[in-house]
Specification:
Elements: E1 3-12, E2 20-30, E3 35-40, H1 46-53, E4 61-66, E5 69-70, H2 78-84, E6 85-88, H3 101-111, H4 116-129, H5 134-137, H6 147-159, E7 165-169, H7 177-192, E8 197-202, H8 205-211, E9 214-219, E10 222-227, H9 229-232, H10 236-241, H11 248-258, H12 270-285
Parallel strand pairs: 3-8, 3-9, 6-7, 7-8
Antiparallel strand pairs: 1-2, 1-4, 4-5, 9-10
Helix pairs in contact: 3-4, 3-6, 4-6, 6-7
The protein binds adenosine-5'-diphosphate.
């Protein structure tokens, strides 16, 4: 399961006075089993790009190839793409509408025309995958939940379609620090335990530093940087020039290094930072 994007260009409202080139000459590949973070400033084209990955938007030019099938060709059914690539929108809880959590999560699988037994099986499994106990939550109203729980229900609704690739647009937006960490940990579980390929859209370097294996950086409708966190976070000047930065702890390590401490600059999480500082303290005591 992979997504290949070739020379993608997308123009909103073409040939009108409001014409806007949102993506231009985007080339990238997402491989089976990866955990990718797609980062960029507001307006850089992230949402437009991910909507191409599950066929919601059609390129103005270029190709999207999913599992060796060109989905821009015309013959591919959107429902077939959705079964492979699940997209969780920003603030997905706004789309919850059923009276119970179970009914809400059932909505997608039911639209696939599955038998009730299979539907219930999928609801149970997807609730387990997002960390919600089936018996405790199934009959509750989605509207009685906390922000983080609502978001889990919305994610379960997409997971219940059993996609191989899960794309999440700013899944931590608007949550408190605990809610953010919980959702990120859950997404990591989907990746590690359930082997889902993940594309996490974010503009939080702290979030990205915690979870991503590879980072794709966008600016003004194009990919400007790409690679493992250690490579991308070295490009502080470039990231800052496009309105981004690196995790706070990486800045801290950098300034300690500049002051003569022998610390690694490849540190992106507070936990890594703590261990590194302990290591340096121990070395200095010797
Ligand atoms: P991001 O997700 O990185 O914030 P978007 O993909 O939403 O970026 O936007 C990319 C560019 O396309 C921006 O300049 C934005 O204003 C423009 N854009 C997004 N959606 C629309 C739309 N529906 N109509 C016209 N322009 C749009």
């Amino acid at each position: 399961m992979s997504i290949k994007i070739e020379n993608l260009k997308y123009i909103y409202m073409p040939k009108s006075p409001f014409e806007k080139v949102a993506l231009d000459n985007v080339n990238l590949e997402i491989n089976n089993g990866e955990f990718i973070a797609l980062i960029g400033h507001t307006g850089s084209g992230k949402s437009t790009l991910i909507q191409h990955m599950n066929g919601l938007l059609k390129p103005s030019s270029g190709r999207i190839i999913i599992d060796d099938v060109d989905i821009t060709g015309g013959e591919v059914k959107l429902s077939d793409i959705r079964k492979k690539v699940g997209l969780v929108f920003q603030y997905p809880e706004y789309q919850l509408f059923e009276e119970s959590i179970e009914k809400d999560i059932e909505f997608g699988p039911r639209n696939l025309g599955l038998e009730q037994e299979e539907i219930t099986k999928r609801v149970k499994k997807s609730m387990e995958m997002v960390g919600l106990d089936y018996e405790t939550y199934k009959d509750k109203s989605p509207f009685d939940l906390s922000g983080g729980e609502k978001r889990r229900v919305a994610i379960a609704g997409v997971v219940a379609m059993e996609p191989k690739i899960l794309i999440l647009d700013e899944p931590t937006a608007g949550l408190d620090p605990k809610g953010r960490d919980d959702i990120l940990a859950q997404i990591k579980t989907l990746h590690i335990k359930y082997k889902m390929t993940i594309v996490l859209v974010s503009h939080s370097m702290e979030d990205v530093g915690k979870v991503a294996e590879r980072i794709i950086v966008m600016s003004k409708g194009g990919v400007v940087l790409e690679g493992v966190p250690a490579k991308v976070f070295k490009e502080i000047d470039k990231l800052e020039s496009i309105g981004l930065g690196v995790p706070q702890v990486t800045y801290l390590m950098r300034s300690l290094k500049q002051k003569g401490f022998d610390v690694s600059e490849d540190i992106f999480t507070v936990d890594q930072g703590r261990l590194e500082l302990l290591r340096v303290l121990k070395e200095n005591r010797k």
